[in-house]
Amino acid sequence: MTVNRGTPPATTRPGPPATGGATAPLQLAVSTLGFLVNFWAWALLGPLGPGIKERLGLSFAAQSLLVAVPVVVGSLGRIPVGALTDRYGARLVFPLVTAATIIPVLTLTVVSSYAALIVTGFFLGIGGTAFAVGVPHVSGWYPPARRGFAIGVFGIGMGGTAIANFTTVRLADAYGDNAPFLLVAVILAAYAVLAFVLLRDAPGRIRPTGSAWRRLAGVGRLTVTWQLCFLYAVGFGGFVAFSVYMPAYLRTTYDLSPADGALRTAGFVVLAVAARPVGGWLSDRLHPVPVLVWCFSGVAALAVVQAFEPRLMPVATIALLGMAILLGAASGAVFALVGKVAPAEQVGAVTGLVGAAGGLGGFVPPLVMGWVYGAQGSYAIGLMLLSDVALAAAVFTAVKMSGLARRAD
């Protein structure tokens, strides 16, 4: 690994003192809850995608764009939000992000045209930036030896997408189309108040000086930042892509109902969420590099199996759920690596860039899958591309990141 001259190695800067005690678990719990409710809002359009497609007569590509817009906005938005968290702290930024997400959620109760849904989805992406608030906050409360597991536990907030898939269609069917949006808006408002009351920035938190853009430029000069971006784009990006597009994929490939497709997608998300702290825990004990190599290799193999469109039970179910476990564990391992190598006062900025890469990694596959299916009538090519990228990530990790492993230790 090389670092530009004039930029200190990421591992040379001390972090804030470990606080421990009862406060750290409370901060972790509140942050995880905030991640979960914001991701719930962020994922609202995914389960509704097949129904919107049929109601508006959309093409597969148009449906893919609709569910992908919040993903790309939430991803790019993590860059400035992460830098703002470094500067102002999570106690201020978390409630603001949550309150801002309420507006597009409520807007979904009154819009119905495709153009209006695209615009609303753009602002719905604000909820996805909560990730870049929680990671630096949790990192500040835990010492490096426990940081991988703590950030993995925080990653359970990804389960907000599972809640969206479990509840959105069912709430709309049972209580009316606006029920899921009104419920989520109320929960977001309650959490914004809770976060402002309970969140506290870690003692000894290093508040960076200078403009946010200058700090981001400094982080961008670190080679390790872009290495982590690539790995997270594959790991978390794969998870995001499946979580937002799987309802449409299952409906098209296996002729499932929207409710059944959403339920199975929720199961995928739950397993990925549960595997994330496991990936962090293994990384604390084995180091993130070997964990990532095994996870990406497994995803590559299972994507090849799924490319042949096997029967849903049991082969396809095993392949899809296996990918869920491996992608979740890989996501946890990447941020265990961030916790080890990122400068303490730049964790938010690094998280923003890496988190943006992960979200963008989830933006592209749904568009590719929609385009491939529209052109070929099959998802096989898209899944083979996923296999190729995952295999490349495994090789890159094994060959290029071994030096980083020695340096970080």
> Rg to the nearest angstrom?
20 Å
Query: What is the β-strand count?
Result: 0
Tell me the helix content. Answer: over 70%
The class by helix and strand makeup works out as mainly alpha
Uncertain segments: 1-21
Helix run count? 18
Give the termini distance in whole angstroms.
14 Å
Major β-sheet annotation: none
Please tell me the overall pLDDT. 82
Summarize the structure.
The chain is mostly helical. Helices cover 79% and strands 0% of the residues.
General description of the model:
With 409 residues, the protein is mainly α. 79% of the residues lie in helices and 0% in strands. It has 18 helices and no strands. It has helices at residues 23-42, 45-56, 60-76, 78-88, 90-107, 114-124, 131-141, 144-154, 160-175, 179-198, 212-220, 223-254, 258-286, 288-307, 312-341, 347-376, 380-400, 402-408. Helix 9 runs antiparallel to helix 13. The protein is globular. The protein starts with 22 loop residues before the first helix and ends with a helix. Mean pLDDT is 82; it is low at 1-21.
